[in-house]
Design a protein that fits this description.
3 helices; three-stranded antiparallel sheet; elongated
């Protein structure tokens, strides 16, 4: 009897395939990743692979920490804030050229 009750509950309240796909798409759309190279790094959306930033090491004027974020000041006076929730964030911190605060 309990098994039947649980099956009915699952059937009534479990999200449909469309709802699960929408939730997954919403989560994936928020995820950002960082890819480092010898020349610099790129920040992109994980789901669509659209570039958000493409930065060369020589374009960075200064870098500093604020809480759980890395803030990069570029020579073009643009400021880029990268939270530590981005994938491969720690690799970027390791590859960041020394000499910044």
């Amino acid at each position: 009897m309990k098994e039947l009750f649980y099956k009915i509950l699952v059937f009534l309240f479990a999200p449909s395939k469309k709802e699960r796909e929408k939730k997954l798409e919403k989560v994936l759309n928020k995820i950002r990743a960082i890819l480092c190279s010898d020349d610099g790094f790129i920040v992109f959306k994980l789901q669509s692979a659209d570039y958000i930033y493409d930065v060369k090491w020589q374009d960075i004027a200064d870098a500093f920490w604020t809480g759980n974020k890395l803030v990069l000041s570029l020579k073009s006076e643009e400021e880029i804030t990268l939270p530590n929730t981005y994938l491969c964030w720690h690799e970027l911190v390791r590859k960041l050229p020394r000499g910044y605060s």
